[in-house]
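BUG: 3D viewer hangs when loading the predicted structure for this chain

Environment: internal workstation, default settings.
Expected: structure renders.
Actual: progress bar stalls at 90%.

Input used:
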Amino acid sequence: MGAIKRGMKYARPLLRAVLIRRYKRFLADVTLADGSEATAHCANPGAMTGLAEAGTPVWLEPNDDPKRKLRYSWKLADIGSALVGVDTALPNKVVGEALRAGVVPELAAYKTVRAEVKYGENSRVDFRLTQEGLPDCYVEVKSANLCRRAGLVEFPDTVTKRGAKHMDELAAMVALGHRAVVLYLVQRSDCSAFAVARDIDPAYNAAFQAARAGGVEALCYRAALSLEGADFGEALPIVAQ
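C-alpha cells produced before the viewer hung:
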C-alpha cells in the first residue's frame, strides 16, 4: 500500500547541505552547497541517535521571514538507505490533514477535528475528534525516527516525562467514557515495524503499557517523505520487545 494522502508540502524547495554539528538541541551548523557555513534551526529536542553525525547530508528549508533569527530549518537527514525526517512538528501537520480528509481508517467516522484542545492537567491534546453518536476521541501524535535494529523504528529516543504524562492523561479520558488514541508517525522508509524503546525510558514504557491496559488505542503509520513534502502512508505493526 502506497501513500494515500498528501499531508504537507514544503513552502520552498529544500537545499542540500552537510552537517557540521548539532548542539544546544535546537541548533545545527551546516556547510551549504557554495561552501559557506550557516546555522539552521533543528526542531527536535530528542537525542537524534544516528542522525546527527558530522558529515551527514541534510536538507534545509530556507525562509526570508525577518522575524526569524535563522534563515534555514533542518527538515531531513539523508542516511543513504533512507531519508529521515527530523522535524518533530511535521507529524501533527501530516496527521491533522489525514484526519480532516478521513483517511485514517480507525478514525474516519469522526467529521469534526479540533487541534490543541485543553484537557487533563494543564495539557493540550493534539487533536480532539467529535461526531454525533460517538464518544469524543482524544488523539496524541508522536514522531518516531529512532532505528537501532534493522527494520525496527522505536519511540522515544530519550527520556520523555511529558510523553509519559500524555499516556496517563489519555488513560484518564478513557476512564471518563471517552476514546483515546496515541498515533506514532514514523519519519523514515527503512523500517517495517514499531516498538516502544523500553530500555531508553522505562517510565514511558510503563505508562504506555498501563494506558493500553486501560483502553488507550495505539496506532502506527508511516510518513512517506520526499524533498517536496510528506504523505500520510501505510500502517505499520506495533510489536513487543
